[in-house]
């Protein structure tokens, strides 16, 4: 993993993140000191027996200067996935990048599933310097469902006083 130490931008499939989480303990995964942009994509999310949130949390804790975080997950795979209740428990500490460096977060193809909403809630709650949370709600949802999702997201507490939530 040594050649990855100095990457500035990384695009990572969620299944690769899970492999890293299973293969490394917290101290073995390298620090990505220069990583400023991370895009997480893939065909599945928090399905049963998956540890995606833990994998993402581990990556965030190893990228202290992360400024841009993008989730781009395929909606057809999200429809059948669910997250066991204990998968999104509050971590004991907030990764440094979330609290002091993350300025932009994009969540593309949000369906409004509980675990998706919880991910957004956690980021808004932890990111003290977040300027923009850009949400793209899945286009196939009804207007009523989209409005309900947007209204719920707007009620989430934000640590950043300047954070703007935008919807596409």
Structure write-up:
There is one protein chain. The chain is an alpha/beta fold. The chain has one domain: Alpha-Beta Horseshoe (Leucine-rich repeat, LRR (right-handed beta-alpha superhelix)), CATH 3.80.10. Helices cover 32% and strands 20% of the residues. The chain contains six helices and six strands, in the order βαβαβααβαβαβ. The protein has helices at residues 14-23, 52-61, 75-78, 96-100, 114-126, 143-154, and strands spanning 9-13, 37-42, 68-73, 104-110, 132-137, 164-167. A six-stranded parallel β-sheet has the order 1-2-3-4-5-6. α5 links the parallel β4 (104-110) and β5. The model is unreliable at 77-86 (pLDDT under 50).
Quick structural overview:
The chain has 168 residues and is an alpha/beta fold.
Distance linking N and C termini = 36 Å
**Main beta sheet:** 6 strands, parallel
Task: Tell me the name of the CATH class.
Answer: Alpha Beta
Strand arrangement, major sheet: 1-2-3-4-5-6
Shape: globular
* Average pLDDT metric: 81
